[in-house]
Design brief:
The complex is a heterotrimer of chains A (777), B (181) and C (287). Chain B is of the alpha+beta class and 181 residues long. Chain B contains 4 helices and 7 strands, in the order E-H-H-E-E-E-E-E-E-H-H. The radius of gyration of chain B is 17 Å and the shape is globular. The mean pLDDT of chain B is 86. Classes of the chains: A alpha+beta (777), B alpha+beta (181), C alpha+beta (287).
Chain lengths: 777, 181, 287
Amino acid sequence: MDKRKYVGEAIPRVEDRRLVTGTSHYVDDIRLPEMLHMVLVRSPYGHARINRIETAAAEAMPGVVAVLTGEAIRGRIKSIPCASEMEGLKVPEHPVLAVERVRYVGEPVAAVVAKDRYTAQDAADRLEVEYEPLEVVVDVERAVAPGAPVIHEELGDNVAFVLRFEGGEALKAAFERADVVIEQRLVNQRLHPVAMEPRGVVAEYWPGEDRLTVWSSTQIPHLLRTQLAMMVGMAEHRVRVIAPEVGGGFGSKLNVYGEEALVAYLARELKKPVKWVETRRENMMSTIHGRGQINDVRVAVTRDGRVLGLEVRILSDLGAYHQLLTPGIPPLTGLMLSGPYKIPAIGYEIVGVFTNAMSTDAYRGAGRPEATYVLERVMDLIARQLEMDPVEVRVKNFPQPEEFPYETATGLAYDSGDYEAALRKALEVVEYEKLRQEQAERRQRGELMGIGISSYVEICALGPSAALPAGGWESATVRVEPTGKVTVLTGASPHGQGQETSFAQLVADELGVPLEDVYVVHGDTAVVPYGIGTFGSRATAVGGTAVYEAVQMVKEKVRSFAAHLLGVDWEEVEEGVGEYRSRRDPERVVSFQEVAQAAYLAKSLPPGVTPGLEATYFFEPSNFTFPFGTHVAVVDIDPETGEVKIRRYVAVDDCGRVINPLLVEGQIHGGIVQALGQALMEEVVYDEWGQLLSGDLSSYAVPRAGDVPWMETARTETPTTVNPMGIKGVGEAGTIGATPAIVNAVVDALAPRGVRHVDMPLTPEKIWRLLQGDAKA
Amino acid sequence: MKIAGKHTVIAERREVWQLLVDPEVLRRCTPGVEELRAAGDGRYEVVMRLGVGAVQGRYEGRIRVEPEVPEVVMKLEVEGRGPQGIVRGKGALRLEEENEGTEITYEGEVQLGGPIASVGQRMLQSTARMLAGQFFTALAAEAAARQRAQATGQPLQPPKHGIFRNLVRFLWSLLKRWFGR
Amino acid sequence: MIPSAFDYYAPKTVAEAVALLQQYGEEAKVLAGGQSLLPLLKLRLATPRVVVDLGRIPDLAYIRQDGNEVAIGAMTRHETVEQSEVVRRHCRLLAATAATIGDVQVRNRGTIGGSLAHADPAGDFPAAVLAAEARLKVVGPGGERWIAAEDFFVDVMTTALDAGEILTEIRVPVDSAHTRSAYEKVRQKASGFALCGVAVRLQLDENRRCQGVAVGVTGVGAKAYRARAVEEVLRGEALTETVVVAAAEKAAQGVEPSEDAQASAAYRAHLARVCTRRALRRALAEG
């Protein structure tokens, strides 16, 4: 009998209906009786001493319930946590409300709680804060220079950590042996994550039960619960965190924020529900930023284009404080510096630097896009210097399929891959040779056309617990209810990725039930077993594997009950779709529903089998996975305005086995769009006074539909050996692969004009200046 | 944001300088000033309504005026804070005698901070230029009023600049309509 | 993103609206399409005590031909201007310009009168009404008066509207068979406003000699302006490529281009030249 087959099918997301009809529930949709509203007063200065805060006028306003300052709640809420551990890491105190000093524009200084948001904002405007401005440093190179203002005086200077690594063969020897040494400074600019839904928190406290419920727009409900409980001094099991519908995160909600603790604290103190929803402006100022690295790169190469050694000095702009993973992001860049290449000797030094800016932290790709950018720019620089085709340089340095698992000089073991196959496929789709011909002809006519290639490998399915600060496993429960409906509880916390669909596909196939009979529950710590959350392209590869293992356990029990009901040994049970049959007597059939009911009625149990039909599994991965691929961008540049038009975009990605190609494609598309944003448009701008000039969406350019080219996607499929389903993960691939493809294409277009490198974003004016021969651009 | 410009006032350099250090004149000429109190040593405390079009805000702050070369170069510093953010500027005025009067060149830097910083910066330069223009137009009117008072022996009638500004605008548009094109 | 308190008035007639503006003076703000005012209110960068909504005044939204002019009510939405058969037939330039404003949502709410009265230095319609040599009807306490488009824009976000006056109608001379026009724009990527926008309208004779010309430029300086120097080069000439190129070179003459985090003054001036050249070429290619 045919097994129902959902896995591998392009099934539209079950989430879509509620999303597109506006009927789902975000934090801001939660309205509780007698709910109060919090508004924060934030620092307008990048660096200043707080001399005085006058709260009386605000407190006296009708409808105002409470005004809190950092001084007033000192010791009541613990420091905002940083989970990253590193030898010698300086961790400054990070109060939820600033005490004595503010260190970036947007830092919370006071909280006002009132009966409605309008009153709260009016009162916040009335609050008088007397600041004494201090010298500001936002430039990371200036921050480490002698005489720079020190942001945390108690820490001595602005260097939070220095991490040095050298691996593989001797680096010095590699450079001595090199025919050519190429040096380049690459800037990976700061970015705003700009999730569609800003952050938001609602908290409610029941004093009788001593129970705190917190709704937060988060990617990590369980980790947040643990941290919140510690921050506000409650027992963890009395705190319930719910992540309702979460409108995107991109890493910006993989964090524990001061506002989450403040709202929880206030709800408990005031014994009334309290709500805070971030405005877009706040979102730009005080939700974490991404990237922010300056990379000084040196590469040792042989005359025929083989890389002998790579040395990178990374200056990482951490911002004023550590958020949850701030210092943990740049080391991921170091770890990934081999990229998809065999580089025998790799050395890096990472200097993490405090600046008067919002913290940087995980943003889609988190450290890996920076590494890929370094490598892919370097490959093109080598090709340029040695007058080779960029394809040839890449192919020359790829490890061959039989060399897997491949050990990099940075200490990683790449699981599986065929990097050249993905590259060749991309070239075939884009018709590379024809394009190069066309380019030669158009260059004759003085036109600016460029072709950019980027081959990447990324580290996904985060990951073995030993390598992560707070556990890298994931949990799942699969429960068949008495009526035969199936509930799946996952510790992952999807917020747009579509696992309500893909996990249902997986479970429906395994149990032989219709897709709509499987309901996936996530994001509620009172309902779901402890889990880690959704980030690092891990939800399907790690969380999905937990679901897979749990459903195997349930299946076993289903078979026992079916055999028992049929009166046969379980070897003699034939599984159909939604029914079980005796092999000996095919007339004897029990339905899946009958099995489910019997398991709960428990009138008669198979020997040694307990009632109920439920299993929980905690999956611990043995390694990361390493998806890979090649992207190709073709651009035309308007020589008069400097505007870049992406004429073609081809992405070939290998994320191992695919449950739902539609979701994979969606992830690739979204990733490319965000990468395009970094390559061409986006940049967080602080002026030298520490003011955020990119603090709203009329100043900060995220790509709109009209900016996005048609994307041609294709796949190769190399299953991983790390998990039984062979899934690698795909959430960040697009962002990692696409940025250098676009930059390489633009630099290639400008090559006839003598341009060797341009730092992102490649705005029209920057390109126009280069075309004018203005070296300052 | 850097701004620079020049204006001519039909008056002797010494007279122009006198106007520039007179708190009453500053109060009348500086666009949007609601209160201005001399705090000594070239310092003034001000309350200003500043803005352009629909973007209007009330700022409390300080102005510091420092004669670097008396009657020639004056340094200026302004900082105002309000619910919309911070406005601050720093610059210098240079006075030079010209055939018809005194040419004032200004050069400086203006910055916005806090909530208004990112939305407002797009308009900052042109707004600063406009406000500077209004200031110097008013200053010229003050000079003219003084000369009139001297010539006629009548008591000085300080001009009302809001009305003056509108009048200039209106007349200008009339003139353009009649003679323009 | 929470406005401070204001009183909301929705007058039913222009006279009532004018009376309200007179009564509240500088403390009142007019709400037309709300595409600029509402964000400013939410950010509390505009904190008027009174908002006077023109949206409930019947008959401020219309498009009709009236002799040699097309009359457009001030409350006409951008989308309506873009789609209007009358506008498309008789003053194509306005329809072409409307199509480039913001995005669909903005065009569905924003109004031509609101855009002009707000006088954003990077607004699109100001360039178009300059090139179309429109005249604008304003109604105030002293009755109505007409202002030529060129006299309307005074400085950054500052117009010739006096206190208590409301812009009610825009009148544009109709295209003839010899009219050619185009709007060329480089968008500021974040906001969709014009980093530079150039509107041109030409009257050609049978020999494609330029009999009349008006060029409006937005996004470059503190306000939209007529590029008179460009017009002078074109007027009376046969519009060859050489003439077009020479004329466009003068697009930023006599203007102090703005500088901000989005673009330098030099780039803005450069774009003015490029957009003028392209707009002229496109207009000439029209027919």
